[in-house]
Design brief:
By secondary structure, the protein is of the alpha/beta class. It contains three helices and seven strands; from the N terminus they run αβββββββαα. It has a seven-stranded mixed sheet, with no helix packed on it. It is elongated. The N and C termini lie far apart (135 Å).
Length: 212
């Protein structure tokens, strides 16, 4: 009788503990598989873009890819070849073709500067591409962690404004306008003379063809 009672008590404790162990192992397996994937997405990856000048880029400047914000500028450092802009792409799952343009552009009417990435090539199936943090990442296909890229010449807003001011000053000068009109008239006269001469040549060729 006592043996029966002991067995029943054991079964009450052993079965739940076995179930609990299975549940614990299942959760542990899930975490082992999920955490590395989650951490890689959250960790992102870093690249360096070389510009001839910063063009208003500062730490915290937003980075856009196809019009979607994908990262931020971490640091801006002067180097012999120009300005090295260190960028963090927020997700390691974000694939960007190496053959892309990298520009500093004005992103709003307030004059805020952003780094704009525009793809100039299409990528093959993502299943066949090693990710940016993968040790087998191919920098000839996609931007990998640690890649160094060449940026395009940023627009200098001060130079653009200065150019518009120069144009405004030019058109406010009466003598300059008279010179432009004189050039336009000469061009129009020359074009009319050329057209008339071309017509005469065509007519002469036509008459020669008729005579034959």
């Amino acid at each position: 009788m006592q043996n029966t009672i002991r067995k029943s008590w054991r079964s009450l404790f052993v079965q739940p503990s076995a179930i609990g162990s299975l549940v614990f192992l299942s959760l542990l397996s899930f975490l082992v598989l999920w955490i590395p994937n989650f951490s890689s997405k959250e960790r992102g990856y870093q690249v360096t873009i070389i510009f001839s000048n910063a063009g208003g880029i500062t730490p915290g400047t937003k980075v856009f890819y196809r019009g979607v914000e994908v990262g931020r500028v971490l640091r801006v450092n002067l180097q012999p070849e120009g300005v090295a802009v260190e960028v963090k792409i927020l997700s390691a799952e974000q694939l960007i073709p190496t053959h892309s343009s990298f520009e500093a552009v004005q992103s709003s009417m307030k004059g805020e500067i952003a780094v704009k990435i525009t793809p100039l090539a299409t990528l093959p199936s993502q299943k066949a591409i090693a990710k940016p943090l993968d040790p087998y990442c191919n920098p000839k296909i996609i931007i990998c962690n640690g890649s160094r890229l060449q940026g395009q010449e940023p627009m200098d807003m001060a130079e653009i404004i200065s150019s518009f001011e120069s144009m405004s000053d030019f058109f406010d000068d009466p003598e300059a306008i008279l010179k432009v009109r004189a050039i336009a008239q000469k061009t129009a006269t020359s074009l009319a003379e050329f057209t008339a001469a071309l017509k005469k040549i065509n007519q002469s060729d036509f008459l020669n063809n008729l005579e034959r």
